[in-house]
Amino acid sequence: MSEPKQQRSRDSFAKVRAAVLELLHERGTGQFSLAEVSARAEVSIGSIYGRVSSKVELLRVIQGQEFDRLDVETEERVGAAGVGAASFARATAEIVTVYAEILRENRDLLSPFFLLGVEDAEILDRGRRSGDAGQAVFLRALLAAAEEHGVDLTRERADWAFEIFYSLCVRYLGLGVTATASPHDAYAWPDLLERLSRTVYLTVSSD
Hints:
Layout: H1 7-27, H2 34-41, H3 45-49, H4 55-80, H5 88-105, H6 107-116, H7 121-148, H8 155-173, H9 189-205
């Protein structure tokens, strides 16, 4: 979808985007109509159809914009995590904590698209690309920290540590469940971060 040239059109679509994000946050799914988006954004449904052909296309556009933002944020925050830490254990904890916090802060955005990706191949593919990009940033940061502190860390071991970390985060945060379902809460968030950091450190530092 091309960027509209007129400021008025850009402003209208910004309202539409905000309305969609609010509905995703409230419903935890894509279960809403373009009429609801139109009413909440106070933008005519004709104007929306002037930009996209369907609700599915609108969701894909919103996902692309939001996941592009998230990819940049992950690159900046996770890429800088652990640099100059006093030890490899401390660097690992910083990397794990920063990435986990990004997932937690964006749960209400990520979870609906986990569900939408089950039925929409394009949404699934965009989500996977963002996930792969995040994994690559995490691994670069972890491998750089290992090199800085003289730790012999293989890519294979770092990959496995990420898989464990990400799977536990997804389970705890309840990504891919509706807004009415509660995330797993056996541990308080600070406790979970400590356990995740320890688990990743033991995985990457074991012989």
